[in-house]
Amino acid sequence: LARRRHFMKILARRRAFEGAKRSEQRNEEDSVDGNAKREISERELRLIELIEAGRARHAIMQETVELGGRMEKLSIAENASLAGLLKATEEVVRWKQEVLNAMETAVESDEVQLRQMQKICELDEKLIDMREAKLLRLEACKEEKEVESARLGLKALEARTENRQLRREMDSIRGAIEEAREG
């Protein structure tokens, strides 16, 4: 566009100059020969104007072609950049999927461990019940065995305490699993 404006300014100056020149020539030329010369010079001027206009068009066409080439290079670079961004995004998605799979595996493992601990607690409760029943039987026995019976009662109490601790641990693990599922 800048070149085109430049050429248009040159054409305007030339036309103004040539217009002034023509008016001088018209005043000087009174004869038929002067009129013929004027026609010839006007045709030459028109020819020069057409040639300059053609050159200006040619320059504009060249600029358009160059601009198209630059735009094509930019488009190629932009496509390469977008392809790189897409590949990086796919890598991030793949990594996040792997992390999610690992978390699901950990949750499943925690659930299995929780079930095993529940079974252990149930077995401990049965064992405590059996010990309590045995204590009752021993108490019904002789007075000599009261000392031994008391000792077994103490063991049962210790087992209950351990069972309560296991239940607390089991409840905390359940809470952690629920938080992991919600997260």
From TrEMBL:
<protein>
    <submittedName>
        <fullName>Uncharacterized protein</fullName>
    </submittedName>
</protein>
<feature type="coiled-coil region">
    <location>
        <begin position="156"/>
        <end position="183"/>
    </location>
</feature>
<keyword id="KW-0175">Coiled coil</keyword>
